[in-house]
Amino acid sequence: MKKLLICFLTFICASFSFAELKRYDRKFEFGIETEAGASNNFIRLTDLLVKDLVIDLDEVSNELSDDGFIIDFNANVKSWFALNFNEKFRLNFFWGIDGSGYTGISKNFFDLFCKGFEVNSSESIDLKIFSDVYVQTGATFKTKIKDYGVHFTPTIFAPVIHVTETKGTAKYTSNENGLMRAEADLPLNLYSVIDLEGIDDKTIDSAFIQETLSELVKSAGFDFSGEVERSFGKKLDLGLFTRIPVVPGRLKYKAYKRFWGVFEQQNAFGIFDETNSYTKDYGEDDTVYSKETKKVHRPFILGLEATWRPFGAWCEICPKVDLAVRNPYSSDCMVYGEYNLSADFRLLNVVGLKFATAYENLIFKHSMGFMINAHVLEIDAGVQTRGAHFARSFGVTGFAAYVGLKAGF
What we know:
Elements: H1 2-17, E1 28-40, H2 45-48, H3 57-63, E2 69-86, E3 89-105, H4 108-115, E4 122-145, E5 148-174, E6 180-192, H5 206-218, E7 221-232, E8 236-247, E9 249-266, E10 277-284, E11 288-296, E12 300-308, E13 315-326, E14 334-347, E15 351-360, E16 363-373, E17 377-387, H6 390-393, E18 398-408
Antiparallel strand pairs: 1-2, 1-18, 2-3, 3-4, 4-5, 5-6, 5-7, 6-9, 7-8, 8-12, 9-10, 9-11, 12-13, 13-14, 14-15, 15-16, 16-17, 17-18
């Protein structure tokens, strides 16, 4: 009993003596964590929990932001094995899968339904879609050079699915003779690691799995992440980090699908004497499968982060800001900023609460989680509200949950 108490007190004291950007509670650690979530930027959960659901398109048109109506999702699983001997030797091997998607419908789509259109007018409605699924594996090595902690993280990733940034359009025109014409076109290009033609008829057996793994290896790309951190006493640590895409992943199978529709109203005013006429046609083209190589990079990232302990190790305030470039080295590149601000409170590093607000991957996120740490086993779990509109994201326009387990000594 005395030895157990001494070990526990040693663990407690060690948890208060560190002065690094991240916490390292175990010399040998195996962990796994997973997260999944989805959101929109307008409809709240409370709007759905009613007896009679009514969607007021006029309200949508008036209150929707200029970004339009946005839906997103993400899901990931990550596992790792870490060796943390001291501040000069920390080695972490990791592997996992990460998927995300984004759809945006321009605001003028709702304006058209709610406010109508003017005679002799025309307008375009845009639809934006993109999505990615990756598998990844790599290692992080951290050492200390003089007063600086240095991280090196080479990562091999393989894209599984890539939906290029698709821009669907809908156009409408009208004139004083009563002509109203609307047409829509949505082309989808989906690149995949295996040929999707006849996928429903394929049997998932050992041969299929071996073929998929072989294609994943062939499609692999490489990027490099690094970070330099410095401690300013035990209360403050600052870090500069980056991820640099080096070798793109390559997907060689393409599936193309087109959805379309046309509506035309002749002599709209003739509805009163039944002299009007209209035609409509809509449908989808057959899916076209082909071989076409698509190069895929994960986003470039450059940022700053800090850990501030104003009252000691039990209270950590962690701000982070970065600049991200989606689809770097291509004409489809998108530049955007991200931030994360979290507060981590721990009692003797055994139980804790964590609160965070962030803007990541074009989505606002607000999370609350808890931690239970028995040293040999740690459980982290939490929930998150989210959405592409900052104010409405607090009203549960989206939801996510995460859980993580760490074991070691």
